[in-house]
Each structure stands twice: as C-alpha cells, then as structure tokens.
Amino acid sequence: PPAGFELLYQPDVVRLYLSILTESQNFNTLEAAAGALQNLSAGNWTWSTYIRATVRKERGLPVLVELLQSDSDKVVRAVSIALRNLSMDRRNKDLIGSYAMGELVRNLPSRQQRSAKNLEEDTVVAVLNTIHEIITDSSENARSLIQTQGIQKLVAISKSSQSPRETKAASHVLQMIWSYKELRNALQKDGWNKSHFQVQV
C-alpha cells in the first residue's frame, strides 16, 4: 500500500481536489485546490506524469476550464498554471487546446482595456505562458488560437503593454505561431505580417 508522499499521488486524492473545485464557492479554497493540482502535476517525474493522466481520466479538465471564468484573479492564475502543467501530457494538450483556448484568450487584456476582470500582471503572464505551452509542438492548437481572435490581443500586448513581462510572454507566443509555416497564409489573409510576430524584447 502507498505510504508517505505517495499518498498524495493516488486517484482518491485527485478526486477529492476535483470535488472541491466543483463544489466550493470560496475563492481561497478554489485557489488552494487548483494550486495543489498544479504542484502535483509539475515536472517530469513518474508521479506527476501519472497525475496528469489521472486528472484527464477523472474528467477534471472541464472542471478546470470552467474555472477560467472565475471573477477571482488568484483562481484564474492557479487554474492557468495547473492547465499549463497538465498540458505536458500530449492527450491533455490536445483537449486543452480544443476546449480551453477561448477562455484563456478571454482573460487577456485587449487594446481598449485590461481584461473585463482587470487581472494582475502575474495572472496575465500565467495565461500567456499557458497558451505558449499549449501551442508548442501543436500547429492545430495554434490554429485554435487564431480562430479565437487571439492574435489581435497578443499583438496589442506585445506592442503596448506597460509590463515588460507581459510583452515578453506575448512575444514568445507570437513567435511560436509564426514558426508554423502552414499557418502563415491564413495569418496574412487576416492582415498580419511577419513584423507582428517578431520578438519585441
């Protein structure tokens, strides 16, 4: 039977955290539960690989994606980082790219305003880093990003954000998108050109 730290990596624990994420209304509790899954799914060792697959099998991805709609800055940040770690699993990456991209993009500020929730810099950077992880090695996920009107927001952040960290993170996403040659025709049809995707930092 499992003992010590191995107790943290059992399916029952994943089910417990997912139950909390489904039922709790308390932002602090939601942030803590998402943060726990974030930590358990981090890195490349055997247990975290197992946790990433377990979250998917326990239907946890839709629970996390729904929480991207939260009005709490800290919940959105914790959930974004958890999704980033979970997307290190290839199957998760495909699913998250298909079902979470729209919600991730909605959390980014537009040229007119910060996001509707006025998210903090750390949270915007977390969302951008999650998008970067999701589109890495996946032109299909990059295509999803284009279809959710994400390019407009990314270019606005890279050109006009007051935060060097946001600018850098957005520029990395843009650079990754441009690296997919098969997407360039679609991008150019939408009025974008290479200069929009060059790193600004």
TrEMBL record:
Gene Ontology biological-process entries: cell-cell adhesion
InterPro entries linked to this entry: ARM-like, ARM-type_fold, Armadillo, Plakophilin/d_Catenin
Extent of the ARM repeats: 59-96
Flavoprotein found in the keyword field: no
Coiled-coil spans in chain: none
Keyword annotations of the record: Cell adhesion, Cell junction, Repeat
Cell location: Cell junction
GO CC entries: adherens junction; cytoplasm; nucleus; plasma membrane
Main subcellular location of this protein, as a coarse class: other
Pfam families: Arm (PF00514)
SUPFAM superfamilies tied to this protein: ARM repeat
Domain of life (superkingdom): Eukaryota
Signal sequence bounds: none
Sequence similarity: Belongs to the beta-catenin family.
This protein's name: ARVC protein
Biological classification of the source: Eukaryota, Metazoa, Chordata, Craniata, Vertebrata
